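Table S2 (continued). Query chain:
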Amino acid sequence: MQTRAKTGGNTASVKWPIVCLLLIVAFAFAVRIIGLRFGFPYLFHPDEPTAVKRALLFFRDGLNPHWFGMPSFYLYLLHFSYLAYYKAEVLLGLSPVLPHLQPDRLPFYLIGRIWSALLGTGTVLLVYLTGKRLYSAIAALAAAFLIAVIPLHLIHSHYATVDVPVTFLITLSFFFSASLLRKRRLKYYLLAGGAAGLAAATKYNGIFTIFPFLAAHFLRERGGEKGLGRRIGDPYLFFGLGMAALTFVVATPYSIIELSRFLQDLATQSHYLISSGHGPIFIDTKPGALYQIRYTLYYAGGAVFWVMAIAGLIYGLRRRRNSDWLILSWVIPYFILISIPVVKFSRFFIPMLPFLSLWAGRLLEIKFKLPLPTRLFRTAWILSSVWLLLQAIAFTGVLARTDPRIEAKIWLEENLPRPSRIGLIKTETGLIFLDDPPLDRNSPGLVVEQYNRLLPALNRHPQYIIATDFDYRQILRLKELYDQKRCDRWNKFLVGDLGYQKIKEFNTPPIFLWFSLGGKFPPHDMLYNRPRITIFQAQ
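Corresponding output:
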């Protein structure tokens, strides 16, 4: 009887982490699938067409992208997914048009978004496996939960863009590096190197996964050659590095075939990121390291995750185990990489999140000398995680609701008298007019006019002006650093002092009960799915 009881207890202790993991992964998948069709039938995300349309051009031009602003692996992933979709349509007798002749068809964008949702969910699983390898099951589950609910990762898992896929591959390579930290096995070297090569072939910053690979090789205490010289000459190391190079070349072959174009495009992209900037968005955001810590990290997961991540980092620095050094071998070089450029989109921070989650989750391992402080500390951690869960639900709700641009379009077309002139203001932050309602230009009696700035719109005096927060938020933030006169003009316009009064506003902030969770000034690329749209009428 005692033996049976012991066996049953062991079985239960083995199963509970698996049950918890399944629940976490299921939740992560659900909040990434819900709202996946946001904005349809319109395409509001400014970056999605870059990859989707280039992947479609392979049907016409062959597999040479003739452009290396981004590597080719993600483009090939989309292309062959589109090919499978096209073949399925043929088999079903739907008589489809060739894919490259219909670049704005929504299924192509949905396929890209599905990949992001799947790989975003896969990252949750990888974080668990990595945490279990480096720390413990409880720390691994906590870290997996955190990456599942962090808003920045959750939001971008809904987009047909490259940031979540590359984060999956970076985490995959790191998992194999964590494995070779424990055991010297050729398969770990090859798998870590291969995943690193694919990460670099997805987005160039993925090449930094070589640092954890090297760190794991030199930090390993058992199962390897002793002495620095023998470690450097270890053939397994060169096999892993060779695999990284090989997979990059296989996944982006034309970078070698058209080497001069590849280097030229790489230099152009580097100049844009490091020197040229992106309009007013990143003015007054130096020093970059403080900007990333105080601003990007804060909005990536909210104030609660900010505290947890910083506390986890401090605890890791204090413990200084090989597992902590391994994480630092990714965090430090990559943090420097994203802090140097002028352009610092919050999405560049996404590959940091799995590793900050590992540290934050590891806090649950802390034990104080007395049991009461330990219980209080863990209770505080659990309450914080409940808040993060509610935050994730709120952000998912935004994606699931009707886009404010579509709501504004419907209201305008149903309620404005005919004839009416409507003025749209061009944003200077790269969206052009994507932040505005997609009004039907053929709607009888509605004349849509586009203006580069507010002043020309005021001079032409349309009956209605539609302003979004993308039009003015950076101007109001920067004041005299950008253009004080324009700042003053916008302030007067918004309060009704320039002949226009606000008559309607459309806004879908992440709200749970009475709590608004979006923050006062979120990063530019965390607002693509929820611009604030205000309609002003001439008085």
